[in-house]
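One such shown below:
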Amino acid sequence: MRPVHYPAYAALAVPLAFLGLPLYVYVPSLYAQLPAIGLGLAGVVLFAARLLDLLTDPAVGWLGDRLRHRVHPLGWMLVGMPVIGLGVHALFNPPTDAGVYHLAVSVSITYLGWTLLSVPYYAWGAELAKTSQQQRGIAAWREGGVLAGALSALMLAAVFSAQPMQAMSVAFLVLLALGGLLLLALPRTALKGSASRPSIRDVWRHTGSGMRRLLGLHFLNALAAGMPATLFLLYTSDVLGVSARTSGVLLLVYFVAGVLALPLWVKLAGKIGEVRAWQLAILLAALGFLPAAFLGAGDVWIFAAVCLVTGATLGADIALPAALQARLANADSENAGHPREAASFGLWGMAGKLALACAVGVTLPVLEWLPAGVERDAALPWLYAFAPVLVKLIALVGIELARAGLSGTVREPFVEEVDKHEKMVDSGPDGMAVKRV
């Protein structure tokens, strides 16, 4: 893999992350305000739709590995692009009388398209990286694209503050098309040997112990991130008493800090390892976020400092575990004797999306259950800040307990000299197989 391939690969992360911000932050608030739905019902529907990923993510991963000798990951992604485009258009532009059916169908189509894009996308990244340095590089560039996509969504929401969702749906389609075009520049490797026939049970059965531990930690980490993401707009308006524009500026501070700090975390991981660097990021995020549980009206500058500190840990919190996952996926593929990257990232996506579903399905109904007024206002800061910090600390302890197992399972399936000596078969621009030494 050459340096020019990093930005080409990372380009698709921009629209996927661009979609994430309105999907997790704005969509719950948008549909909660519709007369036919409301806060609690919106949370239940979004939670139920996310449960579909318990089936679709591992299923797409299993099919991707089973058909890998015939269908390149890019093929699955080309199918997912129109699916997600259709879902986003319907989800972000609901009619005023939209009900539960519209929300359920549009968000389910969106999630299915997302799965058809993201699972092969991450699996392809694991295939492209042949050394631990390349794995960190791919993860860093990809998560840099994630942060750039989130920043783009924030800026667009600020410019089109009157109707942000309509503008976001158009911008997403443009970014998706550009990202898809740049993917065509990446090398497409044809697998050697006979086709594998893993069964659906092999998706979990051939998952190594190290990856199983990492999936559990990923779930906790994503849950801790999903709770404040779901409640952010409610927290800034009801607790801090700031406008929607100020809320956008605070999110901007958060993501800019993440972009600026990401290269530092990558360098640190190269010196002390991904596990230790990830632990340090989690600890810093927990300590920096805890003050948000005690803030009130007018404390916007203190909360800006909270956004700055926690944002600085964001890149490490998403890039480093993804790099570990890619390395574990390569090791599991070597142990199983057939491709495992798609199945591994199918489970990875399932765990992350289940965590976000739990975040929405718990926090919004809890707030709906509490009577409006003093009780709800008092509970909101604790749901927004204290509960995620507690989950973060549990994940931190879990990483420490699993650290020896992770280190023992993460094998180096490729040495640094592989790029000089390994023969691979790449698909040329004319579709013909060419040798590359």
About this structure: The longest strand covers residues 424-427. Confidence is low (pLDDT under 50) at residues 408-437.
